[in-house]
Specification:
The structure holds two protein chains of two kinds. Chain A is 76% helix and 0% strand. By secondary structure, chain A is mostly helical. Helix content of chain B is 23%, strand content 30%. Among the domains of chain B are: 61-201, Chondroitinase Ac, Chain A, domain 3 (Sandwich); 210-244. The chains are: A mainly alpha, B alpha+beta.
Chain lengths: 189, 255
């Protein structure tokens, strides 16, 4: 057991590299437009999650309903500071398409980072390393789009979502909280 | 220590609390975008000074912008000014503006012009005309330009060709660089103070507005989205089936 803990987390590092590589590919494709680059990124995350799907039988998990409620609450807390600002004048015309895409990408990010990546880091280096590594990856993958200025905020949100994953044993509340926080940008950003 | 919790859950609770607290603090301090998945939020509707009849109902008036900039050794340090609705942004380097002797600060303003000069024949002004000017303070004396500054202008949906400039002697075209990826912004090296406007040839259609271009755009979007959703659904179904096969059989009750 001690040997496992001290061994280099090779698989986790490899997977981390893949997720960061997907973000790098997206950054390189940005000149083609936001939509194609985002969808290629989403496809990469889907492929990573697909080829690395698995279960941790030993992990205790909250029930779906309870996890969903906690996800909604965390999303609301993440959204709260935004609501202090003025409402945007965007109508609901383009919202649904945008919201569907935002939810899809947010969910894929959570499946890859808080799902596959978290599982490997936790199994190979422990839960604290899994939370921290997830937060770092989360901040790094958003770097090309938002720059260094947004990194602390993204790292903080990544930390919260990693904590939520460790607490509940599920990816579902992380995806719910992430999606709710994203949607708020339409109305208050 | 929280009783009855595993190490992982304790770490999770601590990280969740710390992360939420840090996010709340950073939201207020950083002007960072609040989207965490990297998808650009579409810009708010264009604010018209004189909206077309069909957009009059929901239109909000355009906003102006101003900045007071320090003067050091007769030169204005580099900086930028933008309107509060982000429809116009100007950037300049140190020494771009030269102020008269005794100037302490320079006040730069960008304001939508409600009564702009008419466009040249065959040219249509698209959106608002903005007046850009800088004056020395105290005194209000004019500031001269040592070199051009960079101006980014948002244009409304529809046709667009180039940005034009009017210093009081008539409109003239400027070499214009349009943003990539369909963003409704264009930039120029602005040669002076005066009025700036987005323009297009009279009666021109929006670029790429043909039925085939529109169809292509929608097919690209919906096609890729359908692809991702289709394979995502397969992945979820396969995963659920796999889990069902893995689940250990429940022991039967005796008796």
């Amino acid at each position: 057991m001690i040997q496992v803990g001290l061994a280099a987390p090779r698989r986790a590092l490899g997977l981390t590299g893949l997720v960061l590589g997907a973000a790098l590919l997206r950054a390189l494709l940005l000149p083609l437009g936001d939509l194609p680059s985002t969808l290629v990124f989403g496809g990469c995350l889907l492929a990573i999650a697909w080829f690395d799907r698995g279960l941790s039988p030993a992990e205790a998990r909250w029930g779906r309903g309870r996890a969903l409620v906690v996800g909604l609450l965390v999303g609301a807390v993440l959204l709260a500071p935004l609501t202090a600002g003025s409402l945007s004048t965007r109508g609901l015309d383009g919202f649904w398409t945008w919201a569907a895409l935002a939810a899809l990408i947010a969910t894929l990010e959570e499946i890859a980072i808080r799902g596959a990546l978290f599982r490997h880091w936790r199994d190979e280096a422990g839960p604290v390393a899994a939370i921290v590594a997830g937060a770092a990856v989360f901040a790094l993958i958003h770097l090309p789009r938002y720059g260094w200025g947004a990194m602390p905020l993204d790292a903080a949100v990544g930390l919260a979502l990693g904590g939520l994953r460790a607490l509940t044993g599920r990816v579902l509340p992380c995806a719910v909280a992430h999606t709710i926080a994203d949607w708020g940008a339409w109305f208050w950003a | 220590m929280v009783l009855g919790m595993t190490r992982a859950r304790r770490a999770g609770l601590a990280a969740l609390t710390l992360g939420l607290a840090a996010a709340a603090v950073l939201h207020g301090r950083l002007a960072a975008p609040p989207v965490f998945d990297g998808i650009v939020v579409p810009p708010e509707p264009y604010r018209w000074e004189s909206p077309p009849p069909n957009l009059r109902a929901g239109n909000k008036p355009p906003l102006s912008g101003e900045a007071t900039l320090p003067v050091l050794n007769g030169q204005v340090a580099g900086g930028g000014v933008q309107t509060s609705d982000n429809q116009v942004v100007i950037y300049f380097g140190p020494g771009t503006f030269k102020a008269p002797a005794g100037t302490q600060t320079v006040k730069c303003t960008i304001a939508p012009d409600p009564n702009p000069p008419s466009a040249s024949t065959g040219v249509e002004i698209r959106g608002n005309v903005y007046r850009i000017g800088c004056v020395a303070q105290p005194g209000g004396a004019p500031v001269t330009l040592a070199s051009s500054y960079h101006l980014t202008l948002r244009f409304p949906p529809g046709a667009f060709k180039e940005i034009q400039y009017n210093d009081g002697s008539g409109w003239r075209t400027l070499p214009t660089l349009q943003s990539s990826g369909g963003d409704p912004y264009a930039g120029v090296n602005a040669p002076g103070f005066g009025e700036y406007a987005a323009t297009a040839p009279t009666g021109a259609a929006a670029s790429g507005a043909s039925i085939f271009a529109l169809l292509g755009r929608y097919l690209e979007f919906w096609g890729i989205l359908a692809f991702v959703i289709f394979f995502g659904a397969i992945a979820v179904i396969q995963e659920l089936r796999r889990r069902r096969h893995r689940a250990p059989a429940r022991p039967r009750k005796r008796g």
